[in-house]
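Researcher: Please generate the 3D structure of the following complex. Treat every line as part of one assembly.
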Amino acid sequence: MIEKNYQPADIEAPMSLVWEDSRAFKAGRPDRRDAQPFTIVIPPPNVTGSLHMGHALNNTLQDILCRFERMRGRDVLWQPGTDHAGIATQMVVERQLMERQQPGRREMGREKFLQRVWRWKAESGDTIINQLKRLGASCDWSRERFTMDEGLSRAVVKVFVELHRQGLIYKDKRLVNWDPKLLTAVSDLEVQQVEVKGSLWYLRYPIEGRTFSPDDPTSFIVVATTRPETMLGDTGVAVHPEDERYRDLVGKKVILPLVGRKISIVADEYSDPEKGSGAVKVTPAHDFNDFEVGKRHGLGQISVLDQEGKLSLVANEDYLRGLPEGALMFAEEFDGTDRFAARKQIVARLEDFGFLDRIEPHTHVVPHGDRSGVVIEPFLTDQWYVDAKTLAQPAIAAVRSGRTTFVPRNWEKTYFDWMENIQPWCISRQLWWGHQIPAWYGPDGKAFVAETEEEAVGNALAYYVEQEVITPEQGREMALDRNKRAGFITRDEDVLDTWFSSALWPFSTLGWPDDTPEVQRYYPTDVLVTGFDIIFFWVARMMMMGLHFMKEVPFSTVYIHALVRDEKGAKMSKSKGNVIDPLQLIDEYGADALRFTLAAMAAQGRDIKLAASRVEGYRNFATKLWNACRFAEMNACAKPADFDPASTKDTLNRWIAHETANASRLVTEALEAYRFNDAANAMYRFVWNVYCDWYLELAKPMLLGEDGPAKTETRATIAWARDEILKLLHPFMPFITEALWKTTAEREGLLALAPWPLQPKELTTEQLVMISAAVPNDPLMPPILPVFNATVFADAEAEAEIGWVVDLVTAIRSVRAEMNIAPATLTALALVGASDETKARAPRWTDVIKRMARLSDISFADRAPDGAVQLLVRGEVAALPLKGVIDLAAERTRLEKEIAKAEADIKRVDGKLANEKFVANAPEEVVEEEREKREAAVERKTKLLEALERLKKLA
RNA sequence: GGGCACGUAGCUCAGCGGGAGAGCACUACCUUGACAUGGUAGGGGUCACAGGUUCGAUCCCUGUCGUGCCCA
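Model: Done. Output below.
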């Protein structure tokens, strides 16, 4: 029994249990051992995160694909798991400690802090998984992985060590993006360029050998800078080689104000004569461009800031080297000042001594940390890098050659642009939560990289024995005793960028580096579903790692979906307070409604502006489906085991079989092309506007009538079409369809594992026609399964007949509404000058038409009765005798308007046909179509004119 | 500065070389035997603007204006 009211909350939890108990989503089910696999790896959400709208969209689309392919018979693996999300998670735990006024991480120490993070992971790690389950995600939950699992960590170490051995991972001292708040390096991608209204400071640098005077422009050179505080670290001044103004100064030296250091003026094309004064100060340790300029001219690198962005001068050997006596006065004054306070202080000091020329307002872009939000500081440190440029080459080639394609295609350009200009990937992070880098250092800083500590230490000790730094005896002792080597050999403190482990996800989750059956069977995966915001972070890196270690692309298709925005198109963010919580929508309208909404709005290449009203609308759709199934149940509709819709006799039943085949084809083709919105909309229309509005309504008289073969057949067909609908709708609305599948009949299995209505694409239409036309009992033919062959089933005759009924009913309803005829008033209908076809059809539909168009009687007539409203239905006149009811003048106006419309059509077509070029150039069928249109319009006009004449006679 | 999208009904969006579509909202009527989370009917658009290509442009091309995003 189906409950009277559809309540999503009542069915969703039980259906989740049914799926879980039956292990329906398990990959490698024995019954699918020979099936073709279909694999998707989930973009792993942050283990301590919770479900937001982006997850809801992302996972809905993946689930639709997985359920679709599962029903098409494939062995589906949807690999779930979570990401340790280094910085994000560490920040959350540190914030917790702060809020609870507990000791900070540095006070706790590394080991205790990590225990704390693991505890937090254990507490909150299930949250997002359970939320994904509420959404209906049909992952193989038995295979859940975590990026810091033992197995995945083994993959990370193996990859690091191998890339290092191949020279593709190396340690280098260069400028990195340093986050002075989080105290770690970050990669280029974690830096956000923000436009900031600042100033351009013009500073006077005195030229060596001339007496500096603010009033004598020949005694100094003016440099323009956005960062006056870093001038303490200047090691040069650059001018453009072709800049006449400064030609004579190239090669000369300037005395750095406040510091006293003598630095050279160099000619370099980096300096833009149009910008500022045309001369720039060069600070190689604090600016990426200056770093390059400095390298070209052999300038020194003097870092004047510490890790926290404070000036560090008095204990700074690089800074002090070669400074004259007395210059230390300022060093002591500025030392320890934060960079922004230092800026003001230094500018003030420069002004005091006449070194400040002027200040101009200036808008420029400043790098900010995407997590911390503070200004990123280019900082000179040792970090580990991946040679991304080398790894990128095969990854570029794979997309160029089409082994991996992006959907929509235009994202490939974005991918190429980035990959072709890729920079070394800084992978070390000065954090604790993550995979610790498998590198050990000796006393001279030499690095030993190996998969295990034993191996690294062994290598190191052997090396230092050979170098005679230690004796063989000492080496042996250190090898055996960790305490003895402490202080001599130390492990790298840093951890790897989170995305390093994510890059391995498509194969590490399958058991690599072991050669597991899963790696063999499910790699490469079929499709990756993700948002464009992580194409660089994740997709590109999976391509690189997958190709390098597996020698095959990690996925053949990358489906890039849109961003979910709020109703007004703004990005959802906590600070704006416009976040729509998917769980709240699920509570209110059900997971099915939310899923359907997201699918229906997931048009390729467009962002989704989500309004709750849409979700409500699709909840109503679910209700409609629910009630349609109740209707079928109340009318005892059941499908016999041997039912074949292709052999139904009744026109109405053949029509719905025809329409169902059509819908199956539309949905299947749309899903194959990743056109989720087309698929969802096709189902919406089919269920509501075809099955409910017409099929069930047209069937009602039959169901209310006497029992008989036709009624039996109709009941069976209603049940059959309902089942087809439940199947086709299941990928979009899994809960309600599975629940209705269960309650509407005795079933052998779950809907989630039921066969999809359409034969797989591998069979061509021709093959299917051959199969369906095959002689029964032919021993050479494989047995024909009683599966409805939606690819080839079509019944044009049924379509035409039902089309006529629909048009007739619609026309009558329309004119009744226009004439304000009360629904309770029944009118008669006369079919005027009916063709033989109509004469044959009409009696079959008397009950239906009477009921639906609210008629008292249907008759045939040679001419329209006096005072009748005359309608044109498929070229024939249908008359409603409404003498006394209708307003003759209004009816006359109505007919005249119709005639004018017909005339306009004729005129438009005539215009085209009169154009010789059109007839000559347009395709034959287009011209033919126009001729047919003209003919139809002429006929319509003739009939309407006749009707008007008759009306006139009356007046 | 470079790149990628997008301007279609009041709103959110499909369509994309041969007569403008959907959902929501709106209006009128309907407690009709599945469903008021419903039914029936209806109003509403020089498809941003200007050129060009074409027999024919909402659709292709160019430009302008406007909006959004990415990169430097």
